[in-house]
């Protein structure tokens, strides 16, 4: 699609419909399992019309991932070195859990990309993401050195927060099947459990 001219309202609407459809299909089937025909069907557009806006399914996938990385990193960026350490980390847990609740398809899209070896975002993982984790790990180490947090490996702490929060999106079917309760109850229960878990693990003795 020619991007040199401003897009019309219909073009913007169709482009967003395609990205929404691509997100739905990619989050279910992964990049390799998704097809242009599936995306076109979900978008309610013909395949030639879809290809007018995006030349390939990879183009859609890359655009979705680029936007997702910013969203995914924002909660960690918000960790405030001047804040109260346990409260800051609990705030990070809460924000990550809210992302899993509000953006489950995006979480599964990211998980599928990682499982495939992250071919489209490896540079971001080894660059921006690594730099941000190193920066926040240094903040956490400073809190520990000041006796404000119990000693733990800061990077594995961050990994554990990713695992315990994104589980509720990436394994949503399993969670629903086991708990058999409304999504609001699941979120509230998860937040209560994780708050207790990390408070106990991080509060200095």
Automatic annotation (TrEMBL):
- Residues folding into a coiled coil are none
Task: Name the source's superkingdom.
Answer: Bacteria
The reply on keyword Transcription is: no
Q: Does the keyword DNA-binding apply?
A: yes
Q: Which residues bind DNA?
A: 35-54
The HTH tetR-type domain extends over: 12-72
Provide the alphabetized UniProt keywords.
Answer: DNA-binding
The record's listing under InterPro entries reads: Homeodomain-like_sf, HTH-type_TetR-like_transc_reg, HTH_TetR, Tet_transcr_reg_TetR-rel_C_sf, Tscrpt_reg_YcdC_C
Q: TM spans, by residue?
A: none
The name on file for this protein is HTH-type transcriptional regulator RutR
Q: From which organism does this entry originate?
A: Acidimangrovimonas pyrenivorans
């Amino acid at each position: 699609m020619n991007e040199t001219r401003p897009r019309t309202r219909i073009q913007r609407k169709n482009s967003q419909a395609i990205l929404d459809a691509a997100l739905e299909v990619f989050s279910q089937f992964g990049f390799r399992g998704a097809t242009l025909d599936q995306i076109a069907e979900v978008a309610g557009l013909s395949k030639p019309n879809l290809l007018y806006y995006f030349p390939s399914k990879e183009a859609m996938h890359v655009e979705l991932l680029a936007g997702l990385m910013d969203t995914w990193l924002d909660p960690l960026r918000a960790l405030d070195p001047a804040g109260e350490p346990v409260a800051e980390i609990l705030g990070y847990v809460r924000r990550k859990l809210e992302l899993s609740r509000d953006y489950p398809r995006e979480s599964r899209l990211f998980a599928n990309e990682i499982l495939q070896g992250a071919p489209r975002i490896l540079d971001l993982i080894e660059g921006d993401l690594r730099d941000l984790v190193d920066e926040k790990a240094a903040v956490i180490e400073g809190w520990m050195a000041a006796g404000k947090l119990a000693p733990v490996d800061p990077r594995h702490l961050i990994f554990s927060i990713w695992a315990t929060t994104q589980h509720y999106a990436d394994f949503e079917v399993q969670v629903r099947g086991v708990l058999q309760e409304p999504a609001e109850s699941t979120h509230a229960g998860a937040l209560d459990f994780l708050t207790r878990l990390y408070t106990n693990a991080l509060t200095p003795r």
